[in-house]
Amino acid sequence: MIxxxxxxxxxxWIGGSDRRLSxxxxxxxxxxxxxxxxxxxxxxxxVVFDTADVSVAGQYLENLETALAGASPSYLVILHMEPDHxxxxxxxxxxxxxxxxxxxxxxxxxxxxxxxxxxxxxxQIVKDGDTLVTGAHTFRFMTAPMVxxxxxxxxxxxxxxxxxxxxxxxTFGAPDGSIFADDYDFETKFLDEARxxxxxxxxxxxxxxxxxxxxxxxxxxxxxxPLHGPVWRKDLSYILDKYQKWSADEPETDxxxxxxxxxxxxxxxxxxxxxxxxxxxxxxxxSLYDASETDVSYLxxxxxxxxxxxxxxxxxxxGIYPPVNDFxxxxxxxxxSNRTFALAENGTWAPAAAKLMRAKxxxxxxxxxxxxxxTIRSALHACDEAALDAFVDAVANA
Length: 398
Description:
The radius of gyration is 24 Å and the shape is elongated. By secondary structure, the chain is of the alpha/beta class. Helix content is 33%, strand content 23%. The longest helix has 17 residues.
């Protein structure tokens, strides 16, 4: 079934959504699916921006053929060479052999690795500030290296003032019908998934995102057309502000994230008691997660949202309980910074988790690890009430 929507003047969305894929990059759960966006601009010379993932090949190719209405595209602009956007590159060229491939120099190195058979295809290498004129539309290119691959380009249409933003401003979650963000309650439907997408996919490269935002900030942008998720045509300041905060490692809220690991429920019970006391004392939002039951991508997303992170962890084989350790390793890999951490440990004979967690967390940039720790011996009892209250106070006042 054909599904084409007009995204801007002469500009048509021809993508597709996958609601059956269980994990993005075989890592991140997709309970609400994911969309793969591609766009056709119909002008004197038709231009297509990116292809799509092989999972939506049938839908994409049907949309593409219908949108072109018998015409052959002059250009295929490749903003991002990741396989969820370039998987159909060879198929596209076989259908339209005269098309000129447009991309950065690094793009064509990657094409040679994924599709060596396309080595002889006509190409146009573009760099920062270069333009492509197709008639009424002039597309100005901006390099956006490491947002989140090194070859990434943005393209700005000077005619419609639309920014084709590659993976930037994308989100997990498939649109229900309309492709436009303003047709949804974005905070309810997409915000958590947009944050989870940013934090886990792009989050490590905040400095590069900041550089791209500065470049884009000089433009009169009226629409943002990403490669995943909805198109922005209204209230662009909303998503730009989120990206400014996320890329600057600035907490989105002053809420507290509590993550615990628990073998038999004793550490879980202590974490729940702590969360209740903290919320009662501060009135701030407190979110509680079991590291064993929560995919780490959701925990990472919450780190980007919250200003403070509290870890409750049992000592396990004289080390850190593995699910909590995995969470810390992910935070390290994604270069979490500008957060305050508080540590609580449990151990029946030799509690050591707090010391070990502190040693790992100290590698994080500009993070404060509270000196006050809570040590539980097997289970929380009435005699621990004063220590628990002191720990609550330390976190509340951090």
